[in-house]
Amino acid sequence: MSGERGIPVRTGQVAECEIVGLTHEGEGVGRYQGFTLFVHGALPGERVRAEVVSVGKSFGRARVTQLLAASPERRSAPCPLFEVCGGCQLQHLDYPAQLHWKRRHVVDNLARIGKLPVAGEEAAGGDGSAAAGREPVVVHPTIGMEDPWRYRNKAQVPIGRGEAGLIGGFFEEGSHDIVEMEACLIQQEENEETVRAVKESARTLGISAYDRASGRGLLRHVVVRNAAATGQRMVVLVTNGREIPREMELIALIRERVPGVASIVQNVNTMRSSVVFGEITRTMWGEDVIYDEIGDIRFAISARSFFQVNPEQTERLYRTAVEFAGLSGEETVVDAYCGIGTITLFLARHARRVYGVEIVPEAIEDARRNAALNGIGNAEFAVGRAEAVLPRWQKSGVKPDVIVVDPPRKGCDPALIATMLELRPKRIVYVSCNPSTLARDLRLLEDGGYRTVEVQPVDMFPQTGHVECVIGIQRIDT
Ligand code: SAH
Predict the structure, then answer these.
(1) pTM over the 0.85 mark
(2) CA 407 to centroid of ligand 1, rounded, Å
(3) Pocket test for ligand 1, best of 304, 334, 342, 359 (most atoms within 8 A of CB)
(4) Cα–Cα distance for residue pair 341/333, rounded to 1 Å
(5) Residue 367 contacts residue 390 (beta carbons within 8 Å)
(6) Using N-to-C axis directions, what is the helix angle for 189-204 and 247-257, rounded to 10°?
(7) Per-residue model confidence as pLDDT tens digits over 198-217
(8) Which residue's alpha carbon is nearest to atom 1 within ligand 1?
(9) Which domains does the chain have, with CATH numbers?
(10) How many angstroms does the Cα of residue 365 sit away from the middle of ligand 1?
């Protein structure tokens, strides 16, 4: 025994352990004499020797030094930068196993944090009292991609100064040093081509790269989007100042080198922080937006708007959300956290009236434009915090039959949940990118008279640890 009382390891020690699980960060969950170690580089089912790098009260962190027994699901990561980049966490795990562990992660959170019984799973966590006498939640197998590579339609590339001048790629994990990158296997090839062309053009014209240490230099980030359905591309140059020297030449070079470029935008960010975008956005050339399609709906996307990054899986995600909404065409539906109105417009085709609310004003402008673009006349949008706007709608007499929520990682605001419970819609559809805040919110809904019926995990981000789910929730009528 060493270190703190009851903790069997200390920093620097090499421990031999069995890996029994996988965290959403792609670390193996190891057990060493009953103590939990999160082991970087280890996979479930493996036996490893690992060097302990830190020890806390309830768990420690370690790094594999030797694989004693490898998992049959282990493979070598196809990307040579896998270890340094940190953008992907699961390239060393077979794709079917990735899908399995993503479902597992959802199940564990529902049980542990949500205290929900899951069909086909042994009751885990809690005392099971909340689970007594109710139908268990069905968690379906994760919907994966046929080809889980080259799916991202957006790249956000930090630019910096290397020894030989302007470079761009990614921040080395845990630092602000930029590593030059030519290829990223989860990016659509078009994005790679666009980024390369922009970097080369900037080099040709002697446009300076931002230096994070001194705060000097112009080009901070290159953000590019590719709309596969229309072939249009967008380039956003995030600059440390308004003036771009030789701007006309830069535009000309980008147009010459980037096929399909339809929009070149500047965003000015002079802050000394790691936030990517600043307040001012201006179109340098072309349109303010590019157009993409999901299913049979067309979307205008502007530089700052949120748009799902995996178009193929997004369609599956939205179709599942519409299916769980169970619409007959007569319903009033609210879509909270609606972004540019993506789910809202999918729902509008099947409902009497839909209301979307979103905090980013530009996104709501896009949402309105998108409704018009698709000839959808039964959608209404409001700018604001969902938790503030929903009570306003409630006062003005809006009575939703179904509420859809698709919040950011931190989940729903408690005030929004409270208002939902007052409005008592027949169904709630929750689209979640974070199983732990999801489980927390489901517990509140369950305690307020709702039942979680089914959960559909969808793999929106293959090779990474992230998992997205759609949840069908019903009001219990008493
Ligand atoms: N449903 C959309 C967007 C989901 S992302 C889609 O699938 O494309 C979550 C969105 O919630 C973002 O657009 C973000 O700007 C917005 N948001 C964050 N906090 C919010 C709040 N308190 N109220 C309303 N919208 C919010």
Answers:
(1) yes
(2) 5
(3) 359
(4) 13
(5) no
(6) 150
(7) 999 999 999 999 999 999 99
(8) 338
(9) 14-74 (2.40.50.140), 138-143+306-475 (3.40.50.150), 154-294 (2.40.50.1070)
(10) 14
